[in-house]
Design brief:
The complex is a heterodimer of chains A (about 270) and B (about 200).
Chain A lengths: L4 H11 L4 E2 L2 H13 L9 E3 L2 E3 L1 H4 L7 E8 L2 E8 L1 H14 L5 H15 L3 H12 L6 H20 L9 H24 L16 H19 L7 H13 L14 H8 L1
Antiparallel strand pairs in A: 1-5, 2-3, 4-5
Chain B lengths: L7 E4 L1 H5 L4 E2 L12 E2 L4 H13 L4 E5 L3 H15 L9 H18 L4 E4 L5 H8 L14 H11 L7 E4 L3 H5 L1 H8 L1 E4 L12
Parallel strand pairs in B: 1-4, 1-6, 4-5, 6-7
Antiparallel strand pairs in B: 2-3
Helix pairs in contact in B: 3-4
The chains are: A mainly alpha (about 270), B alpha/beta (about 200).
């Protein structure tokens, strides 16, 4: 389950009050926010000084689903994105896809957050994201601590993996999620961030998936600890973490199912 | 042609799932011999299906489905048949394969018409028990779900012949009694393409 760029844009537009986002920068920030709700989107975000950023969105062109309207705000040229009727259909198809991973509560929480953030300016949205993802140099100690804790907790979960049955689809998914999460956490700690914690340099141009995955694993762990103990599981929520952690990374991300050398990378992490 | 619109061609769910071609996960390619995994008699199943489709002959499945059990069964079977030791394969690879089977099922299953399984299986059970087929091994005894399939299929009226395409060992071992008592021809996947051949 992954939303393509048009679906993701229409999802954001559909969740705002007037079906309009007032600038491309803000749209960029709101789209990035989908990752913090564990919604896999086919958009490659990297880190600039304002947080998650997709360079391709700067050149976004009007299409059958939305139009771009130029205007001037405080003397500066701006472009707003407005949903077209066809976009409403795409919004419906995107929300239909979300039904596989989202409860009604999840959907309402996303809607409330997008609506709330839409009222802020792009800089405030970035600040909020920075705090959640610990991308600032000042937060590096917190990030390191978080990564250490995640590694320890994923190790504990992985040690208990054989307690999960193999004869249900939910058990198979849960085992996969714990196993994959365990090695992903190792990759982040022992490969990707191995030397970064000694540096004071801002992590410019980093693939944001690194940070999204740390956030996602942190959110998933308490839930996985609970699910491992029971048989009557929350399949939708398992699927939400599963789709994001296992299926959202594409070929350009090293720890991806599409990377032919994934197995070698796993050996390297251990 | 043996295929006839008067006949009914029903498939057990595993045989429907055997029509799927699985892409071996690239990240775990090292564990697999090829890029894809498919059932042993995939080509033969496909031959039958394409003939049924081109002759506008409906295909049937049995409901309600034990889809979870069947997806897991087919996942494990495809992995074993591809020569991979299931116990050596990462859980993630197993899960990605079962995801593909589940997606395939969601896509393909609406193209099959329904035959309702029947919960009243006492008579079917009795016939199996009194059939002098000597169930010495418990494992050979058709399970309740198998009996529900036979009982449900028996209730369907048919001008021609009823076929059940299945590789389930219970059906295959008891094909004679099922044919005699219920006029249902059990067709293993290995021979299903023969249904298309000229008589």
């Amino acid at each position: 389950m992954i939303l393509d760029k048009n679906e993701a844009i229409c999802l954001i537009l559909g969740l705002t009050q007037d079906k309009i986002v007032s600038s491309i920068t803000k749209l960029n920030k709101l789209l990035a926010r989908l990752n913090l709700h564990m919604i896999p989107v086919d958009i490659k975000f990297s880190l600039n000084k304002f947080g998650s950023y997709d360079a391709d969105l700067t050149n976004i062109k009007e299409n059958e689903f939305f139009e771009i309207e130029s205007y001037t705000y405080k003397g500066k040229p701006c472009r707003k994105v407005i949903m077209k009727p066809e976009g409403k259909e795409l919004f419906k198809s995107a929300t239909k896809k979300l039904e596989k991973i989202f409860s009604e509560k999840d959907f309402n929480s996303l809607k409330d957050e997008i609506n709330g953030l839409d009222k802020l300016d792009a800089k405030s949205i970035s600040n909020n994201e920075h705090k959640k993802l610990l991308v600032d140099v000042d937060d590096r100690t917190h990030l390191e601590q978080k990564l250490n804790v995640i590694n320890v907790e994923m190790y504990d979960l992985y040690s208990d993996i054989d307690k999960i049955e193999k004869d249900t689809l939910s058990g198979i998914k849960l085992r996969a999620l714990i196993e994959y999460g365990y090695f992903l956490a190792k990759f982040l700690k022992n490969v990707r961030f191995k030397t970064m914690f000694d540096s004071d340099e801002y992590d410019f141009d980093a693939n944001m998936m690194h940070y999204y995955f740390i956030y996602a694993l942190g959110e998933a762990i308490p839930f996985l600890e609970e699910q491992i103990k029971i048989r009557d599981r929350d399949d939708k929520k398992i699927n939400k973490f599963y789709q994001f952690i296992i299926n959202s990374a594409k070929q350009e991300y090293p720890f991806s199912l599409e990377n032919k050398d994934l197995n070698k990378l796993i050996q390297k992490c251990c | 042609m043996l295929l006839d619109k008067k006949n009914i061609y029903a498939f057990d769910e595993c045989s429907i799932l055997h029509q799927c071609v699985i892409k071996a996960p690239e990240g775990f390619a090292v564990y697999f011999r090829g890029d894809t995994l498919c059932a042993r008699y995939y080509e033969r199943l496909l031959t039958l299906l394409s003939q049924l489709n081109s002759n506008n002959i409906p295909k049937y499945k049995f409901v309600p489905s034990n889809f979870q059990k069947n997806i897991i069964k087919v996942t494990n079977q495809l992995i074993k048949d591809s020569g991979v030791d299931l116990s050596m394969l990462p859980n993630t690879a197993i899960s990605v394969i079962s995801d593909q089977i589940e997606d395939f099922r969601d896509k393909i299953i609406p193209s099959y018409e329904d035959i309702n399984k029947c919960d009243d299986i006492d008579a079917v059970k009795k016939i199996f028990e009194s059939g002098n087929i000597g169930f010495e091994i418990d494992d050979d005894v058709p399970g309740d779900d198998d009996c529900k399939i036979i009982a449900g299929y028996d209730k369907i009226s048919c001008e021609g012949k009823k076929y059940l395409i299945s590789d389930d060992k219970h059906f295959k071992k008891n094909w004679k009694i099922i044919n005699e008592k219920y006029k249902i021809g059990i067709v293993p996947e290995s021979r299903c393409h023969e249904l298309c051949k000229s008589s």
